[in-house]
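Thread amino acids onto this structure.
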């Protein structure tokens, strides 16, 4: 399972959120994807601890404000490195969470900030995740 962060605009004619037209590419610049466990840590750093899915995309300005605050708050305090972890569920499934290096959360926050700025330059107004 994973969570993707992507740029959106509101199609007012249909009242539907769509990928911003200037951001519909096959490269990974406009689709930042990470496993659920890592994404939840990033969302917590952004101040969205209980939002693994955004009900509605948030404005790029608010998203950039939160990424900036999270990065500034972590200066000289990078997220800790983590070893591979395994957890067993009650129904017999093993969940393996991969290792990550020190500062991983800040690296991903920086990627999201760059994506949001590039998306805004290409016409996006909001960032959503699911």
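Threaded sequence (130 positions):
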């Amino acid at each position: 399972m994973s969570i993707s962060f992507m740029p959106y605009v509101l199609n007012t004619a249909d009242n539907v959120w769509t990928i911003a037209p200037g951001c519909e590419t096959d490269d990974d610049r406009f689709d930042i994807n990470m496993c659920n466990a890592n994404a939840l840590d990033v969302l917590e750093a952004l101040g969205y601890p209980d939002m693994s899915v955004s009900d509605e995309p948030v404005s790029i300005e608010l998203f950039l404000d939160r990424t900036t605050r999270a990065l500034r708050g972590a200066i000289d305090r990078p997220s800790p490195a983590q070893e591979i972890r395994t957890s067993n569920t009650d129904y017999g499934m093993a969940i393996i969470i991969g290792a990550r290096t020190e500062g991983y959360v800040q690296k991903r926050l920086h990627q999201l900030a760059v994506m949001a700025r590039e998306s805004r330059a290409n016409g996006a107004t909001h960032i959503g995740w699911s």
